[in-house]
Write a structure and sequence with these properties.
- The complex is a heterodimer.
- Chain A has 11 helices and no strands.
- Chain A has helices at about 1-10, 10-35, 65-100, 105-120, 120-130, 135-165, 165-175, 180-185, 190-220, 225-235, 240-270.
- In chain A, α6 (about 135-165) runs antiparallel to α9, α9 packs parallel to α10 (about 225-235) and α10 packs antiparallel against α11.
- By secondary structure, chain B is mainly α.
- Chain B has 13 helices and no strands.
- The relative contact order of chain B is 0.14.
- Classes of the chains: A mainly alpha, B mainly alpha.
C-alpha cells in the first residue's frame, strides 16, 4: 500500500497511527486481558491513584476501578465513532453525488435540505433525538450520524460538480453507460481520497460527541464510557480530581491520534490541498 | 440601500423562517414518534403521574384530535410564542426560556468575540512565522485544544483556578446572597464570567487560529501581496493592510456558520459552571425528563442561530459589495 508508505514517512502521522493501533487493540482485547469489571466494587470509594498497586488509577465514588472503566470505555468510544461515521457516509455520499451529478433543481432541492440540517445547532439536535428515543448505543449512534452527514454531502457534491464534465465522464456517457454506472464506477472512485480524509476526522468528532452526550447523562446505561465517568465525577471534582482527569486524557489522546492520522492522510492523498507545497 | 439589497434581505428572511418552520414540524413529529402517550412524553417523568396536568396538555395541544389538526394547533400556538407549561416550575416554557436567554447571550457573545480576536491574532502570528518554531508550537497547541473535550476542559479550569488557586468563582453567575448593585454587580458578574467564557472561547480560538493561518498563507501567495512586497512596503504593513484584510473574509464567514456549534458548547459549559442560561436549562430539562421544555429550548436556540446568520448576511451585503446578491 503506497498510502501506508507515504503515511509512514510523516513522523507525526505515524505517531498518531501507532497510538490509534494501540487503542484499537485495547478496545478489542482489553476486556479479556483486564478482567476486573468496571461496575464491580473492588475497594473503598475515593481511593486516590498510586496508593494501591492493584488499583493504579484509584477508585470512584462507588469503589469501582477507574482503570477498568478506561479499558472497557475504549470499545464504545471507537465503535460509536466508527459506525456513526459509516452511517453518515451512507447518507451524505449518495445525496451529494446525486446533487452534484444531476445539478439543476435536484441539486437545488437537496442542497436546501442539507442547509437546514447545517443551520440547526447539531449538538442540541443530537441531545433531543437521544433523549426522546431513550439513551442506548443505537439512538446515540443514529443521532451522531444524523448531525454529521451534511459536510460529507457538500464535499461529495463539490467533487462531482468538478468532475462531471471531465472528458472520461463524457466518453462514458457517449458510450451509453447508465447514470448509475457513471456515478459509481467512473466518478466515485476519483472522489475517494477527500472522502477518506474527511471520514477519519469525522470519527474524531463523533467520539467527542459521544463523550459529551454521555457526560450529560445520555449514555447507554448498560455500558461504561469515558464521558459517563466524567459526568458522574463532575459533582465531586473538589474531592476526587482523578475521577474526571484520567477519562478526559483518554478521550483527548484518542481524538488527537485520529486528527493526526487524518491530517497525515490529507497530506499523503491530496498533496495539492495540504498547504505544504509552495516555495 | 438599493432595491436589489432589499430583495436579498427579504429572501434571506423568508429562508430563515422556512428553516424554523421545518424545525417546528420536526419537533412535532418527534414527540409523536416517541414510544408511549404523547401527553406523558411531553410531561416528562415528574408530570406524568399528575392526571390534571396531562389533561391540560391534551386539551392545549389537542392530542385527542386528528394529526393534521394537532399540527395546526401546534404551529398556531408556536406563532403566538405559546409552547405550553412546564410541570416543575409551573411557568410558560417560552417565558422560562426568555428568562434564561440573556445569560447565554452574554456568555456566548463574550466567548465569540474573545475567540475570534484571539484566534485571528494567533493565526496571523503563526502565518507570519510560517515553518518556524513558533508556527509549529501554535499548530500543536491548536491541535491539542481541538481534540480536548470542552466539558473536561471546563472541569479542569474549575480544578485549577477555583479549587487549587482560589482565584475565581466556579459556579453561578453572581455571588449568592451578596445582593450587589450597580458597578459592584457588574464586577461580580464579570468575575463569574471569566472561567466559562475562557473555556468556551478556547476551543473556538483553536478553530479560528487554524483557519486564519491557512487563509493568511494562501492569501500571502496572491499577486497583489507580491506587488506590495516588491514596492518595498514594510512586512508589518503588508501583513495587516493587504494580507489580513483579504484573508479575514473567509474566516469571518466560517465563524458565522459556527454559531450553531457555539450553542452546543454553551450547553456543556453552562452545565459545568452552573451558568443560568438556556444551555443549563436544557440540561435541567433532560434531568427532569421534561421533553416539552427540551424541545422548546431546541427551537429557540435554532431560532437564535437563524437570526444570527441573517444578521451576518445583512452586514456582509452592506460591507462587501462583491458578494453576489442573487445567491
Amino acid at each position: 500500500m503506497s498510502i501506508l508508505r507515504k503515511l509512514s514517512t510523516n513522523k507525526v502521522a505515524l505517531f498518531g497511527l501507532i497510538v490509534l493501533v494501540f487503542l484499537v487493540l485495547v478496545a478489542i482485547f482489553g476486556p479479556y486481558l483486564y478482567e476486573t469489571s468496571p461496575w464491580k466494587m473492588v475497594n473503598r470509594p475515593f481511593l486516590p491513584p498510586m496508593e494501591n498497586t492493584d488499583l493504579m488509577l484509584g477508585t470512584d465514588t462507588m469503589g469501582r476501578d477507574v482503570l477498568a472503566g478506561l479499558v472497557y470505555g475504549a470499545r464504545i468510544s471507537l465503535l460509536v465513532g466508527l459506525i456513526s461515521t459509516m452511517i453518515a457516509l451512507l447518507i451524505g455520499v449518495p445525496l451529494g453525488a446525486t446533487a452534484g451529478y444531476f445539478g439543476g433543481w435536484i441539486d437545488e432541492a437537496l442542497m436546501r435540505f442539507t442547509e437546514i440540517f447545517q443551520t440547526v445547532p447539531s449538538f442540541a439536535l443530537a441531545i433531543v433525538i437521544v433523549a426522546i428515543f431513550e439513551p442506548s448505543v443505537y439512538s446515540i449512534t443514529i443521532a451522531i450520524a444524523l448531525v454529521s452527514w451534511p459536510p460529507v454531502a457538500r464535499l461529495v457534491r463539490g467533487e462531482f460538480l468538478a468532475l462531471r464534465n471531465q472528458e472520461y465522464v463524457l466518453a462514458a456517457r457517449l458510450n451509453g453507460q447508465t447514470n448509475r454506472n457513471i456515478i459509481l464506477r467512473e466518478i466515485l472512485p476519483n472522489t475517494l481520497s477527500p472522502i477518506i480524509v474527511m471520514a477519519s476526522l469525522m470519527v474524531a468528532t463523533a467520539i467527542l460527541l459521544e463523550s459529551a452526550l454521555s457526560f450529560l447523562g445520555l449514555g447507554d446505561p448498560e455500558i461504561m464510557s469515558w464521558g459517563y465517568m466524567i459526568g458522574a465525577a463532575r459533582t465531586v471534582i473538589r474531592q476526587a480530581w482523578w475521577l474526571s482527569f484520567f477519562p478526559g486524557v483518554a478521550i483527548a489522546i484518542t481524538v488527537l491520534a485520529l486528527n493526526l492520522v487524518g491530517e497525515g492522510l490529507n497530506e499523503a492523498l491530496n498533496p495539492k490541498l495540504s498547504g505544504k507545497r509552495e516555495s | 440601500m438599493s432595491i436589489q439589497t432589499l430583495f436579498y434581505i427579504a429572501g434571506r428572511l423568508i429562508k430563515g423562517l422556512l428553516v424554523l418552520f421545518v424545525i417546528a414540524i420536526f419537533n412535532f413529529f418527534l414527540i409523536r414518534a416517541a414510544p408511549g402517550d404523547p401527553a406523558k412524553v411531553m410531561a416528562g417523568e415528574a408530570g406524568a403521574a399528575d392526571e390534571v396536568f396531562l389533561q391540560q396538555l391534551r386539551e392545549q395541544f389537542g392530542l385527542d384530535q386528528p394529526l393534521y389538526y394537532q399540527l395546526w394547533v401546534y404551529i398556531s400556538n408556536l406563532v403566538q410564542f405559546d409552547m405550553g407549561q412546564t410541570y416543575r416550575q409551573q411557568m410558560p416554557v417560552f417565558d422560562l426560556i426568555m428568562d434564561r436567554l440573556p445569560a447565554t447571550l452574554l456568555l456566548t457573545g463574550t466567548a465569540f468575540v474573545l475567540s475570534l480576536g484571539l484566534g485571528v491574532l494567533v493565526g496571523v502570528i503563526a502565518a507570519s512565522n510560517h515553518r518556524k518554531w513558533i508556527d509549529s508550537a501554535i499548530s500543536v497547541a491548536a491541535l491539542v485544544f481541538y481534540a480536548t473535550p470542552l466539558f473536561w476542559l471546563a472541569l479542569m479550569a474549575v480544578l485549577l483556578f477555583s479549587v487549587f488557586l482560589g482565584w475565581l468563582p466556579a459556579f453561578g453567575m453572581e455571588t449568592v446572597g451578596a445582593n450587589y448593585t450597580g458597578w459592584d454587580r457588574v464586577v461580580d458578574i464579570a468575575e463569574h464570567l471569566v472561567l466559562p467564557a475562557m473555556t468556551l472561547g478556547l476551543f473556538f480560538t483553536a478553530v479560528y487560529a487554524r483557519m486564519t493561518r491557512t487563509s493568511m498563507i494562501e492569501t500571502g501567495r496572491a499577486d497583489f501581496v507580491k506587488t506590495a512586497k516588491a514596492k518595498g512596503m514594510s512586512p508589518a504593513r503588508v501583513t495587516f493592510r493587504h494580507t489580513l484584510r483579504n484573508a479575514l473574509l473567509p474566516v469571518v464567514t466560517l465563524a458565522g456558520l459556527q454559531a450553531g456549534q457555539m450553542i452546543g458548547g454553551a450547553v456543556l459549559t453552562e452545565t459545568v459552571f452552573a451558568w443560568p442560561g438556556i444551555g443549563r436549562l436544557m440540561f435541567e430539562a433532560l434531568f427532569q425528563r421534561d421533553y416539552n421544555l427540551l424541545l422548546g429550548v431546541f427551537f429557540i436556540s435554532s431560532a437564535m442561530v437563524v437570526l444570527f446568520n441573517l444578521v451576518t448576511d445583512i452586514i456582509y451585503c452592506l460591507v462587501d459589495p462583491r458578494i453576489e446578491l442573487t445567491k
